[in-house]
Amino acid sequence: MSYLVVGAGPIGSAVAEQLAEQGERVRVVSRRGIGPDHALIERVAADATDAERVAAVAEGASTLINCAMPSYDRWPTDWPPLAAGMLAAAERSGADYVMLGNTYGYGPVEGPIAEDLPMAPTTVKGRVRAQMWNDALEAHQAGRVRVAEVRAVEFLGTGVISPFMLMALPQVLAGQPISYPADLDAARSWNYAGDVARTLVAASRYDGEWGRAWHVPSTSTESTRQLTARAAAAAGVPMPELTEMPIEELVRLGETDSIVAEFPEMQYMTRRPHVLDSRRTEEALDLKPTDLAKVLTEITTHQTP
């Protein structure tokens, strides 16, 4: 076995499938022991907070890729033991450690978001992500494990969970009005799930300096309004009425939905431009983003309104 992938969601499954298709042996760990069906993929049920168990499962692996994702409303309680368990497992097994992350740890940024920016979180979830990276980087600098983190903004792709995929695309396909919590005309990075997986795989094979972040190349940096119009055109349906949801309304929706209740603190990312600078990643890892037209064809074909 060459790889241990923790998490069998859309990204973890895509990583495992890409590796298996390239001839790598992969072990996928999840609580329920699920994952893609492939001759080179072994599915294992395990609790990722159990460092000893994960280290045992990782025996013989060259790389541990963390694609786990606790429920959005439980990050402060669920992420610390998960992250600690996987970091400890990587150290004990001798595997390299690649984390799937995001831009929360940067805090508000003016202009394009570069990969060498320091952690400066201003939110609860931002501090969780920053602490995860700082702990991993400390272990790397102490020589205990090689680490890297792949960061994305908002996912597009079949089966992924993101505000656009939950709160806009189904309404586009159903011809219903959309009230969306964002500045509808602010530029934003949109990351295709397949590109996220490709970046994780490429980062795991990098033969240069580790202890660094990689930014997933954006399949689009269009505004929410532009992306919605492009999605409608790809689906062959009229552009629906699209309005900006006030933060006050978002807060009210959160009173009856624990996941939506977590959205307001991250609104600084959606009420202003939020664009990744991925030039260093594209050059060093030889990556280019998937064409948006192809992504929109996929998600409008497979999404159920």
TrEMBL record:
Protein known as: NAD-dependent epimerase/dehydratase family protein
Q: Identify the domain of life.
A: Bacteria
Provide the species name: Kribbella deserti
Please state every residue range assigned to the domain named NAD-dependent epimerase/dehydratase. 4-206
- Please give the coiled-coil regions recorded for this protein: none
Q: Which InterPro entries match?
A: Epimerase_deHydtase (IPR001509), NAD(P)-bd_dom_sf (IPR036291)
